[in-house]
Structures are given as structure tokens and as C-alpha cells.
Amino acid sequence: MNKQKNFSRTRMKHPGSLIGKLTVLSIFAILLPMGCMAKGQKKEKIAKGVKIELADSVSRKAMNDSVYVILMNGKIKSMLMDCDGKCSEVKYLAREDCHLLRFLITDPKLYLGDTKVYGKMMPCIRFEFQKVKDGSIYMNLDFGLGKWTLTDMSGKVLYRSSLSTNGMLRFCHELYPQNELIKNHYNSKVK
In the predicted model, what is the mean pLDDT of residues 115-141? Predict the structure, then answer.
């Protein structure tokens, strides 16, 4: 009889251990099939040959790789342009602004096409993308014509397209809120 009392006392010391073990075991039993299903789905997609393209594949196809590498990795400097084509204000972009500009460059809507507009390209703002070994690429924005171009250091046009969205205009207005020309374009097109 004394043995029975000791046995019942030891079982009563840890009443939650059995419940805890069952809980952990049931959670493991539920999660195990879910992991196997997710792993099996991944293999099915790869086996079917699903083609995964990068989000910026449109911009990469529009320009060659060497230009694209400079745009995505170079230091960025912005320059306000006068009517004479001379720089009036130069500013190095902050890290967050660089990321935002690169995001805007990869927007597929910027590469929809080059609509014919008659007039001379007079950029309001120019961005210089510098890469030490590869040189510099300039992105010229003309909000009056609604055009943007990529040029090399000698001025040769590498790519030309229409500004089909107002993203670049909003970005330039945030960079230079006191510039009258950009402010007038912003007020006429965005609002």
C-alpha cells in the first residue's frame, strides 16, 4: 500500500507535462505536412519551367548592360540647368534619393515610346551617374517637351523616350522646391 501512495504522489507532481508533450507533438504533426506541401509546390513550379523575370527587365532591355550598370551603381549628382545649357546649382543626392531615382528609372512606363514632339531639347535638370572606371552617363529631363534622354560624356544620345508619368517631375520638385521653372511645371501637370 505504501508503494501505491508514493506512485500517486509522483504522478501528481507534474500534471502538466503530459499535456505539454501532447501539445508539442500535435503542433509538430500539423506543421510537418504543411512544410512538405510547400516544398513540393516549389519543385512543381521549377519543373514546369516558370520563367521569372526581374522587375527592371524592361529598362535593362532598353539600354545595354554597361549603361545599366552605371545607372544602378554609380554616384548621382543633380544639376539644375539654365536656358543657356549651363549648370546653375549642383547637388549630390542623399542615399534615399538615389534609391528613389533608381526606382523611377526602372519604371516600365518610362520606356513606352518616343512620341514625336517638335522643339529643341532644353533640359531643366540633369543627373550625372558617375562610375570611376566606366565613366559618366547623363540623364537629361525636359519637362516642357515631356522628354528624357541618356547621353554619354561627349553628348551622344544613347537613349531617348517620353516622360509618360509625373514621377520624375514630383521627384525633381522635392529636390528643388524653390526652383520656379520646376514649380510651374509641377503645378500645371500634377494638380
Answer: 82
